[in-house]
Specification:
The chain contains 8 helices and 6 strands, in the order H-H-E-E-H-H-E-E-H-E-E-H-H-H.
Length: about 325
Amino acid sequence: MEAGPRTRPRPDQPLRARWDPTDDSGRARVDRDAQPERKKQSALGRFVATYGWRAYAIPLLVILTIVLIVMTVRDGNDAAVTPAADVNPDSASRNTDVSKETKPIGAPTGSIQAASLPAGTLPPGGPYTQKGRESYHVVPGAGKQVGTGPQVYTYTVEVENGVNSQDFGGDRSFAKMVDSTLANPRSWIGDGKVAFRRITGGEPDLRITLASPATARELCGYQIQLETSCFYPPEKRVTLNEARWVRGALSYEGDDLLYRQYLVNHETGHGIGYESHEPCKENGALAPVMMQQSFGVANSQIMALDPQMQANRNLVCKPNPWPFPNK
């Protein structure tokens, strides 16, 4: 009987190649050494596979960063805090002939002891010159008019001789701060009634001056034992106390930039006719720029210096360096 066809070669026969790589049962052979085929991943899948848990943290950090930026910008925009009517100076109270006065304007006249005004204490900080030479030099640099108001005030930037320039950053730095503050639309040019132009020669309307504490006391008085600034009409001198310029005020909590802007605006405000100080008008609102913020932003603090002021003693404001913060 003839044997049927063999499916495997005998051991003594050579192996034969197959055209169809299937096993004897017709099923495809399995290559155990072959790697399984991977499914294609999306870009998001590859990102997650690469960074793990950080893939979820990164978008969250981006969102938090955007939120912080928005909050910072909003905090810097004081317009959202209080209506303009609660902050803007009252033009009706402005004395346009203030330069004809003979006494300092803006300095406290009360006789209260400094210990009773802890908010007005000079903060710790850098050094300053206690006493200068009571003479001044003009910082070079004229500028174009800023503002469109019909009443244009010319001004010089001056520094008392004998004051150590290293303590306050130098003449140019001081002048730049004065110029940029007055040119800001939130400053006095904001209501369209006044304008400013810096000059270096001739007779200015205002002499914006950095003075030593001893000279500031000579010009502004020293009824209370606290460092203060003022406008001295006989010399048309907007007197900025160097001790305050260097160290600021407790009410500004170490923000020297904002305090210096306040100092320029407040004392220049006296120089253009805003003689009277203002109280806080709404609890938690921005303080009026003509409030004595160097001594505090609570009515109970500043009314100790001005007993004639009519205001609610319980109101407390937030520091504000600008006459028109909503601009």
